[in-house]
Amino acid sequence: MAYEITLLPFGVSFDCEEEETILEASIRQGIQLRYGCKHGGCGSCKAQIADGEVDLEEASSFALMDYERDRGLALLCSAYPLSDVAIELDDDYEESALRSGVPPRDLEARVVAAQALTHDLWHLELALTDPTTFAFRAGQYVEVRVPGTDAWRAFSMANPPSAADRVELLVKILPGGLFSRHVAGGLSVGDALSLRGPYGQFALIESEAPIVMVAGGSGLAPVWAMLGHLREEGSRRAVTLFYGARSARDLFWLDELDAMTRALPDFRFVPALSEPGSGDEWDGEVGLVTDVVARRCESLRGREGYLCGPPGMIDAAIDVLRGKGLFSSRIRYDKFVGTDS
Ligand code: FES
């Protein structure tokens, strides 16, 4: 049996089967509700139930406190409808963004290139074979099935949406990781991979506002897709990308980033090393990338912020950006949780 879920104040509605969560139903139908972990751990999908009943048995008491349940809040990734449901969305939702999603689909692909960029980061280029193209927004991610298992791992596309026949991914190699082992241990050109997607709401806001980006590690992937998209659009927006790495051996695509500074009319790339090695010839910024943002930026009022990397970096960057006058509603982020066990 299906129930109707209505998103207020816009009146956007979609069906939800009784055995799927409200978040699953929204993703399936391309409705862009906010989420992170998809399993009750992060609280990103918390929303106010305005009318109707939901089953919250699976919601963790950590991400949804008892007093929040009593106030009618729910984690949409853990909420099963027991009736038609109306949800009152936060003020910073926009109807156009809500409707801008693309329903995810199953995809088959073949490896075209697999290359180590650093000691622990690989670049994979996949050609889609079925279907041969798919639509996504710069900043979104796909899930890749670990061959021979039922496990899926999430990776952001590094290519812009115009390259609709392929998927480029940055894969962080984690010691003992399931997919890491597969990539570093023998993934070959021509190998088949199953994917599904696109997922996520990390995407550019349509505006002319100047942009500040903060990324770390493989978090460069979605940001790189955004930069490629801006370049193809002929955008004249001012963009500054702060990129955090531990030492010089963790940097990559420096020539490509240099070329991007010439391709975009107003783009600055600011790499920062938190622990430069003794042999590093480095005259750039040193310190945590978020400290570098704090040091180098005056007011950020009127800008948009796009953040991608480990959770600690994102939380610190949000604090810095807010402290510099950037409104929360203009900050988009994607937290990369480094699990591949
Ligand atoms: Fe993380 Fe729902 S998406 S708690």
Can you describe this structure?
The chain has 341 residues and is an alpha/beta fold. It folds into 3 domains: 2-98, Ubiquitin-like (UB roll) (Roll); 105-199, Elongation Factor Tu (Ef-tu), domain 3 (Beta Barrel); 211-335, Rossmann fold (3-Layer(aba) Sandwich). The chain has 8 helices and 19 strands. Strands 11-10-13-8-9-12 form a 6-stranded antiparallel sheet. Strands 17-16-15-14-18-19 form a 6-stranded parallel sheet, with helices on both faces. Strands 2-1-7-3-5 form a 5-stranded mixed sheet. Helix 7 (289-296) packs parallel to helix 8. The longest helix has 14 residues, at 220-233. It starts with a strand and ends in a 6-residue tail after the last strand. 36% of the residues are buried. The mean pLDDT is 93. It binds FE2/S2 (inorganic) cluster (FES). FE2/S2 (inorganic) cluster (FES) binds at residues 35-38, 40-45, 63, 75, 77. FE2/S2 (inorganic) cluster is lined by residues 35-38, 40-45, 63, 75, 77.
Calculate the mean pLDDT score and round it: 93
CATH architecture of the largest domain: 3-Layer(aba) Sandwich
Helix content: 10-25%
Structural category is alpha/beta
Q: Beta fraction of the residues? A: 25-35%
Number of domains: 3
End-to-end C-alpha gap: 36 Å
Which fold name corresponds to the CATH topology of the largest domain? Rossmann fold
CATH superfamily of the largest domain: Nucleotide-binding domain of ferredoxin-NADP reductase (FNR) module
Which ligands appear in the coordinates?
A: FE2/S2 (inorganic) cluster
CATH class of the largest domain: Alpha Beta
Biggest sheet layout: 6 strands, antiparallel
**Total number of helical segments?**
8
> Compute the gyration radius: what is it?
20 Å
Number of strands: 19
Inertia-based shape: globular
Strand order of the largest sheet: 11-10-13-8-9-12
Give the topology string: H per helix, E per strand. Answer: EEHEEHEEEHEEEEEHEEHEHEEHEHE
Contiguous low-pLDDT stretches (5 residues minimum) are: none
